[in-house]
Amino acid sequence: MKNAGTVLMYNCSEEFSRLKQIFAMLRLRMRVVEPDRYHVSLEELAQGKGEPGEKAQPLAEPMLVFCGLPQALLNQVLEVIRVANLPPIPLKAILTETNRTWDTRQLYAELLKEREAIAAQKEG
Q1: Helical ranges in the chain per DSSP H
Q2: pLDDT tens digit sequence for 8-18
Q3: What global pTM score does this model have?
């Protein structure tokens, strides 16, 4: 059976075992990204490529990157995550033409900037 897309998972420890079950049920390939692969491009990570490098400091919080999911499936995944009462994962991204060559650190920094901008808008 064909897989429906890939999810790159960062810092998703044991408390996220239900999340992994959900992804498996939806036929999503899961790739846990360890800190020694943070230098590899997101596109290569999604393809299961990239050699380990120097061990980096782990991200401060969980992050998910959805790769190659059709929009309808992405919406379904996000809804299932929402109703499953899982620990919050505020940092989520979709692999795009713009970010496919980025490494984990670049994406993480960009998501933090976006979150700060949204928080500033809400305050203003």
Answers
A1: 17-25, 42-46, 71-83, 104-123
A2: 999 987 777 88
A3: 0.92
